[in-house]
């Protein structure tokens, strides 16, 4: 059974006249271009530890099958804001799983897209932990309820936003990368 023991956030931006090559350059910027990436869904494993990207990269080998949760977006429109973000919500009990969310959008700044991704993850975790909240309240109010419950210890995000450049594809990626 494969359950990751460590994970790290990474983001990247790539620009090229070809869409696929702009994605490759975003992977390079994120320092994960040497991995064979396999996208997985939204569960952050129990007892998994977050590490800094530099430490995480050292634990990976070129060509390794590497699991990640990734948000990816692209535009070829000059001046268009393009963004990707992953958000995470971690339970107070490290033996419990957390949630990761992916979000992509156009026209939002880093705070907006990061908060949205974090909100998605936090809300998913809150519902599984039985935390009562009003879904119609804004995220800042709900975040306080989540944290005050004592069941959710932390939430954060890794947003990546930039403007498109004329005549080129611009790709943004944001990922949580898992390490065995």
| DSSP E strands, number | 9
Q: How would the global form be characterised?
A: flat
Mean pLDDT: 94
Q: What percentage of residues falls in helices of 4 or more residues?
A: 25-40%
What is the terminal separation in angstroms?
Answer: 11 Å
Return the string of H and E elements. Answer: EHEEEHEEEHHEE
Largest sheet: 5 strands, mixed
Placed side by side, the strands forming the largest sheet appear as: 2-5-9-1-4
SS-based structural class? alpha+beta
Unreliable stretches, pLDDT < 50, 5 or more residues?
none
Q: Hey, roughly how much beta strand do the residues contain?
A: 35-45%
Instruction: Please compute the radius of gyration using only Cα atoms.
Output: 17 Å
Count of DSSP-assigned helices: 4
Characterise the protein shown here:
There is one protein chain. With 180 residues, the protein is α+β, with helices and mostly antiparallel strands. Helices cover 26% and strands 41% of the residues. The protein has helices spanning 19-29, 53-58, 110-129, 139-148; strands at residues 6-16, 36-39, 43-44, 49-50, 65-75, 81-91, 98-106, 152-163, 169-179. The strands form 2 sheets. A 5-stranded mixed sheet has the order 2-5-9-1-4. A 4-stranded antiparallel sheet has the order 3-7-6-8, with helices on one face. α3 packs across α4.
